[in-house]
Amino acid sequence: MKSMKFFKFATLIVCAVFAVAFASCSDDDDNTPAIKFNPSTVSVAVGGTKNVKVAGGDGIYTAKSSDDKTATVTVDKATITVKGVKAGKATVLVTDSKKVTGSLRITVVDGVVVDKAKTSIAVGKEDVVNISGGTTPYTAASKDDKIATATVKDAKLTIKGVKVGSTTITITDKNKKTATVVVTVTK
């Protein structure tokens, strides 16, 4: 009789241990968010740099370029800095301490680069676009000055909305290399 009670008690203990073990496993799921970038793709000039914000993962990042001869990368907390070395394409792989990864496509151009390929402004308002790469000085021309005007000072393109519509601004460097910005002017 005693051995039967002991057997029931031992069986109850073993069942309780298994129940606790199985229940605790459900909390082991990894809910670390995916790594994302802003901007999500990068175009940088040879010799130029571009900062990219990193979000997601656990916040402890390392980064590696697929081709250090095209683009190099450094990490400072949640910002990676991409430097263009030579014209071409590369991919930057960012990994956090839990091995969650994200990849960022990089294009390095041997010419003029703008930090915004498109912009939208209201009539009477201005927007500034940063220019890099190429050879200074830069000039800018609007395809339609009645919609938006463009002026360049140093490496800053200032676009002013004149009338509702769309136009294209072309930036040209000393060696006739160009970049464009599509402008939409709203009310």
Q: What's the order of the H and E elements?
A: HEEEEEEEEEEEEEEEE
Per CATH, what is the topology of the largest domain? Answer: Immunoglobulin-like
The figure for the number of domains is 2
> What's the mean pLDDT score?
88
Strand order of the largest sheet: 1-3-6-5
**How many helix segments?**
1
The low-pLDDT segments are none
- Please state the CA-atom Rg, rounded to the nearest Å: 28 Å
Q: Which geometry do the CA atoms define?
A: elongated
In the CATH hierarchy, what is the class of the largest domain?
Mainly Beta
Tell me the total number of β-strands. Answer: 16
In this structure, how is the largest beta sheet organized?
4 strands, antiparallel
Overall SS class = mainly beta
Task: Provide the helix percentage.
Answer: 10-25%
Content of β-strand: over 45%
CATH architecture of the largest domain: Sandwich
Organism: Odoribacter splanchnicus
InterPro entries: Big_2, Invasin/intimin_cell_adhesion
Keywords: Signal
Signal peptide: 1-23
